Amino acid sequence: MTAVETAPAAGRRRGSRAELSDRSRAERRLGLILSAPAVLVMLIVTAYPLVNALYLSLFRYRITAPDDREFVGLANYRTALTDSLFWQDVLTTFLITFVTVAVELVIGFALAMVMHRALVARRTVRTAILLPYGIVTVISAFAWRYAFDLQSGFVNSWFGLGDYAWFAGRWSSLFVIVLSEIWKTTPFVSLLLLAGLAQVPRDLGEAATVDGATAWQRVRRVVIPNMKAAILVAVLFRTLDAWRIFDNVFVMTSGQNQTETLSFLTYRQTITRTAIGLGDAVGVLLFLSVVLIAVVFIRGFRVDLSQVKGEK
């Protein structure tokens, strides 16, 4: 009797799973159909410049002499990889990326905690914190440049630094570039970490409090382990973005005083020196380095974007 009664129940459960699975597949298929045109356009827009750059990087080609084009194979890549200037720019790019991402992660986590725990004027607090991220990067770079300028800046007068020329040396110039980058993009990191904080179960925090854990212990043992995916995604996105830094360097120093990055080197070779082949080779190397960073993060740290959205 019991077996007879439970059989239809099991059948209904299997039927509901099948129905749910069919509906899920139908929704996924519909999503692919709706997004296909946009994805196709994006692929065309991004794939053509990449393939064209890869093609031109195999030639000795200057835009000032369009008819004088010579196939040189991988010679442009060999020239870039054996040039000490290229590796100096790699080091500069790495320093900027490492410092900015590390500082932004710490400050962004603190801001995310403030936004998450704000009880009064929560929307106002979040808007104020996220405001710098809404400013165009070039405008932000010009503001920081004028603030630290020897003639028109106010930083020296505020802090009693006299006639200190911030953009006259390598490290002082990099300090301003890094500072401006941190101010501009820390809100983006805090926004990603805020999404991670929303996924931390409150029950765990309350249980830790009952057990006598301090605030720092709750953060270290409860909060951070449960938002590890959000932290890794924030670090990944910011690392890829910082590795391609260009605007701040272009506006503040134009690559002088050994502040040139890989993106600026690509610009200088292609636009300033009109060496299209060599510039595209550097650009392809920059693209490959970005892909390598993404692969290392995703495979090495097992970044799962679904956990950030709260999916199981």
From TrEMBL:
It is a multi-pass membrane protein. It comes from the Bacteria. It is found in: Cell membrane. InterPro entries: MetI-like, MetI-like_sf. One of its GO terms (biological process) is transmembrane transport. One of its GO terms (cellular component) is plasma membrane. Belongs to the binding-protein-dependent transport system permease family. PANTHER family: BLR7065 PROTEIN, SPERMIDINE_PUTRESCINE TRANSPORT SYSTEM PERMEASE PROTEIN. This is Sugar ABC transporter permease.
